[in-house]
Amino acid sequence: MKGDDMKADQIIKNAKRFTSGREYLRSSSLVVKDGKFVYVGDEAGLSDYEGEVTDLGGRFIMPGIIDSHVHITTGVGAAIVEELLGVPREDVIADYLMTNEYLKEEFAFLTNVVGEQAGSGVAVPDEALRYLFGADRDYIEEYYRTIGIKYGSFERFIEDGLRLSAEDIRDLRSMYLLRGSE
């Protein structure tokens, strides 16, 4: 008999899990305990846990999509780094919006996969995936507006919100910029 810490709230096997990498779907098994994933991997790892098992029969699962705009964190992270490196704001925004160009092929792929996994065989509208994963000028502009309201300026956000010193920023620039481009 397994201990209490091996009792799971939910065990899922035979799922195709969405990943953000080049391998969009991976066969996966997942274990949830106390609202958190305690295991993600192959089916062999499930033998360590006990609880009711749900077999998804190879269907699609997308854990973590609670707020459909979580993707902005990566875009905003890149925007912060670009700003710290001295990239003009309009260039930062243009770079963020290029996400849609970079993901164009992925959107086409995912529209068909999601439709197949839903069992309808009908491709999900491209606009639905753009809403979930795309970049929109309004999102990034709202980010900057919110920083202005909360901190007064982007510079204060860097200092007070992220607690980066002038020395931290110099170090970052020395790591990522070529001499003479600072």
Explain what this protein looks like in three dimensions.
This protein is of the alpha/beta class. The protein has two domains: 4-61, Urease, subunit C, domain 1; 72-176, Protein tyrosine phosphatase superfamily (Protein-Tyrosine Phosphatase, Chain A, Alpha-Beta Complex). 45% of the residues lie in helices and 16% in strands. It has helices at residues 72-84, 89-97, 99-102, 104-117, 126-133, 137-151, 154-161, 166-176, and strands at 10-18, 25-33, 36-41, 53-55, 60-61. Strands 1, 2, 3, 4 and 5 form a five-stranded mixed sheet that branches. The protein is extended, with a radius of gyration of 21 Å. 10% of the residues are buried. Residues 65-73 have low confidence and may be disordered.
What topology emerges from the helices and strands here?
Elements: E1 10-18, E2 25-33, E3 36-41, E4 53-55, E5 60-61, H1 72-84, H2 89-97, H3 99-102, H4 104-117, H5 126-133, H6 137-151, H7 154-161, H8 166-176
Parallel strand pairs: 1-4, 1-5
Antiparallel strand pairs: 1-2, 2-3
Helix pairs in contact: 1-2, 6-7
Short description:
The chain is of the alpha/beta class and 182 residues long. Helix content is 45%, strand content 16%.
Assess the beta-strand content as a share of residues. Answer: 15-25%
Question: Unreliable segments (pLDDT under 50, ≥5 consecutive)?
Answer: 65-73
Mean pLDDT: 77
- Give the termini separation: 63 Å
Q: Helicity level, as a percent range?
A: 40-55%
Q: Tally the beta strands.
A: 5
Total domain units: 2
Approximate shape:
extended
- Tell me which CATH architecture of the largest domain applies here: Alpha-Beta Complex
Biggest β-sheet strands, sense, barrel: 5 strands, mixed
Sequence of secondary-structure elements: EEEEEHHHHHHHH
The CATH superfamily of the largest domain bears the name Protein tyrosine phosphatase superfamily
Number of helices: 8
- Overall CATH class of the largest domain: Alpha Beta
What structural class should be given to the helix and strand makeup?
alpha/beta
CATH T-level fold name of the largest domain: Protein-Tyrosine Phosphatase, Chain A
Q: Over the alpha carbons, how many angstroms does the gyration radius reach?
A: 21 Å
